[in-house]
Amino acid sequence: MCAICGIVSFAEANAPSLHLLKSMLGRLAHRGPDGSGYYRDRNAALGHNRLAIVDLQGGAQPLANESGDLWISFNGEIFNFVELTEDLKALGHRFRTRSDTEVVVHAFEQWGADCFSRFNGQWAVALWDSRRRRLTLCRDRLGIRPLYYTRDAGRLLFASEIKALFADRSVRRAFDPNGLAQLFTFWTPVAPATLFEGVSEVRPGHVLEFDVSAGSTSERPFWEPSFAEQGSQMPDDDRRNGELLRHELARACHLRFTRSDVPVGAYLSGGLDSSIVAALVARESPSPLETFSIRFAQHEFDEGKYQSSMSERLGTRHHEVAVSNADIARVFPSVVWHAERPLLRTAPAPLFLLSRLARDLGFKVVVTGEGADELLGGYDLYREFKVRLFLARNPGSTVRAGILQQLYPWMERRPGTVPAFAEAFFRRHLDPADTGLSHRPRWDTTKALIALLAPELRERVDAFAPDQELLQLMPQEHRGWDPLSRAQWLELMTLLPGYILSAQGDRMLMAHSVEGRFPFLDHNVAEFAGRLPARHKILGLEEKHILKLACGDLVPDAILRRPKQPYRAPDAAGFFAASQPEWLTYITDSARLRRVGLFKPDAVQKLISKCRAANGAPMSNTDNMRLVGVLSTLLVQQQFIDGDGGNGAHASMPPMTVAVDRA
Amino acid sequence: MQSGTLSMTVCPVCIQEFVRLRGRGPYEQPVMLEAALLLEECLGVVLQDNDISVEHLGSPEALCRFAAAVAREPR
Fold this sequence. Notes:
The complex is a heterodimer.
Chain A: E1 2-9, H1 18-27, E2 35-40, E3 44-50, E4 63-64, E5 70-78, H2 81-90, H3 100-111, E6 121-129, E7 134-139, E8 148-151, E9 155-159, H4 162-165, H5 177-186, E10 200-201, E11 206-211, E12 216-221, H6 238-258, E13 264-267, H7 272-282, E14 290-296, H8 304-314, E15 317-323, H9 325-339, H10 348-360, E16 365-367, H11 372-376, H12 380-393, H13 419-426, H14 440-446, H15 455-462, H16 466-472, H17 483-493, H18 495-510, E17 515-517, H19 523-531, H20 534-537, H21 545-551, H22 557-561, H23 573-576, H24 582-587, H25 590-596, H26 601-614, H27 621-642, E18 656-661
Parallel strand pairs in A: 2-18, 13-14, 13-16, 14-15, 16-17
Antiparallel strand pairs in A: 1-3, 1-9, 2-3, 4-5, 5-6, 6-7, 7-11, 8-9, 8-10, 11-12
Helix pairs in contact in A: 2-3, 5-15, 6-19, 6-21, 9-10, 9-27, 10-18, 17-18, 26-27
Chain B: H1 12-22, H2 29-43, H3 54-57, H4 60-72
């Protein structure tokens, strides 16, 4: 895992600035501490910070083909690089390294942009063809690795993180009202939109080409999430499908555990998905697997007993980081700086601390269970959707609402404890023809943040209808999909890439130079899941039914049978249970709130007073979300709009290992 | 009727799995409602309130009988 960045000048008279490129690399030092490098000619400059994982001696970047006219800056892993190397050697390509990066170069030479559909991996890549003066940018299928860009009349800048683009003082730093509207609906902007005006994100599974000679830009997908039409799904044999799923998953784990020249550890959350991944990779490990977990003092959030039982079962060397409210409050500004976006939960903060633990213990790579909930029907939201469809099928029923007791069993204020409120809430927007039906409650709840915006900004945000725009992007084939598939598509377009894999994934891992690998997000597993009958994913209200069938023998019964509990961390309590941190006092100062003009100062103060009065006692999910959302938005404003994006904690610059200047 | 030997003609696997997961009952209202949800999805029907009863959904045997009846005479 690494950082990439670059500059393309549309006019040869203005060769890219090496000084700017190095500034960009400086802001990405945390992603790649093992070496730094650059390539520059009269049109383009590519930069790279390396986290050395494969071919530790030979994989320095940027790297070129044999003739030196195709250059690459690559972030990620191509897990099937061994097989592809053999294919490419048979086609006459000569290799100078053992790295997966060189495979990308030769594959691109051989197959052009079609090469990406041959890769099994996670990547963000820039390829510069100096002869044809063409830049190609590409991200992996599901958006595991990040890549952003901004352009004006004369130049294009790209980088793994937005803060590197802001190293150029001429790049405007302002909130994009469309990005805000999306974030305060979906929890995340949806690529290509970002939170910042003029900054775009390369869409997952897409290739972008900038042709300097022709002055043209093109974009095309090489992969998109797909689901089988009802009636053409896999046979209704859950045992057999379970065997096939396990085969795919074991293969994905094998590739992600063995294709590394450094040790690979595993996160253990205490849930089913990470436990299964740990069990499968432990079988590959010649020595005891090293596992890493988060512990909380609060019983409501702590999953220690499940983590311990899994660790004991596998005989792992287990490591824990105990996270307190004060810890979350202390690191929250750094978490936001790395995430580069408002957060609606503090859950990324403990993951920030967990990656630090892994790194301190010498680990650069961990496998985790991300993706299972999205692909195999694990989220409460999907169960909620099925319940709402059940209510919608017979709106006059007087007994159906009793099923709401089955939802959110882990919540203190679960629907079963407030039945009248729950029924009114979940019966809203029950139009079965609405392709967004599954997500309306979440989107409506999240939009509560918009009511806190200052009137002028709210007017600009209200001009956008992000939910309508997103639903229009749903492929025409969705008419043949089952309802669960439509809900899954929405998750794959929004929360997975923008929040789970980014704010809570890549950014928290790479804050301490740790690469995450996600077997459930192997595209073979994802495509297999897309062909399964919906009933195999959620049987009645039993989530991830087929995964439990397929891999239940790998985990203790206590983990297999426990009700689904999403990973959560203390929210508002994290800021108010102990003494208030200085940063919070500063960013919520009334005069400052008025000057910044993002939120209604009175509304923010009222919210804070309410949280303070709670004195650490549990608050409603909505109030927690509003508070964390407001504070993190104010931090983003402070760090990236008032500040220049460079005011976070900097790692020291890695040693320069490649320096090629042809300008 | 044992849960492992259900003689259903419609979607026996789903009902067997449901019984395996939720036990042999007797089922209380939330579980009967979940069973109703499952039957509606499997059979493509909409049940009426008076269908959601112990007589129809309160045990694995009742569930099997009722599912078979609904499959014969969709409502």
